[in-house]
Amino acid sequence: MSNDRPVTLAVVIGAHGVTGEVRLKVFADDLSAHRRFNGGALTLRSVRPGNNGAIARFAEVSDRNAAEALRGTELTVARDALPPLADGEYYHADLIGLAVVDEGGGAIGTVVAVENFGAGDVVEIERPDGKRFMVPMAPNAVPRWDTRTLTVADGWAD
User: Fold this and answer.
1) Which residues sit opposite 23 in a β-bridge?
2) Count of alpha carbons within 13 Å of 124, Cβ hemisphere only?
């Protein structure tokens, strides 16, 4: 997988209190393993659970106005800062943008999103005509993927 593309781990959804803390929508299991975000522009001092996400404090943010100004900011780290994966594991960011093919190698579309509604990951695929469909990220539906393509089993792309 490409190690030069930043991976978004959270997004600032607003200020929390008056001392510069921010509310985060978190896309990772644990942010505390990372201290520097956005190429070193933000240094994480603390993070704790909050309502519907987390509450974080950054060294560079000292008041509510500065915290509010970060609303919508994605918190990214370099892909190679993430832990290595075991066989069969993947980061969602590594799937997005992959070309999707059928088992015969015929082009189907592109992975545009990865969702999880509680029963496992589901990839959203966009066809060249703009129509989208979803396929579970399970061996019977996606028998293989690599750094360039994701293969959808026969019958799932109909």
Assistant:
1) 14, 55
2) 10
The owner of tokens 């990865």 is 114
Q: Can you give the C-alpha Rg of the chain in angstroms?
A: 18
pLDDT in tens, 50-86: 887 899 999 999 999 999 999 999 999 998 888 888 8
pLDDT of the residue at 28? 81
Query: pTM for the whole thing?
Result: 0.72
Residue with tokens 């370099």: 78
What angle (nearest 5°) sits at the alpha carbon of residue 144, between those of residues 143 and 150?
110
| Each residue's pLDDT tens digit, 4-33 | 678 889 999 999 999 999 999 988 878 888
Q: Choose among 29, 49, 39: nearest CA to 91.
A: 29
**Smallest Cα–Cα separation from 75: which of 34, 114, 20, 116?**
34
Q: Which of 23, 20, 28, 124 is nearest to 76 (CA)?
A: 28
Bin 39: left if φ > 0, else alpha if -120 < ψ < 50, else beta: left
Q: Grade residue 1 by pLDDT with cuts at 50, 70 and 90.
A: very low
Quote the tokens at residue 138: 């399970």
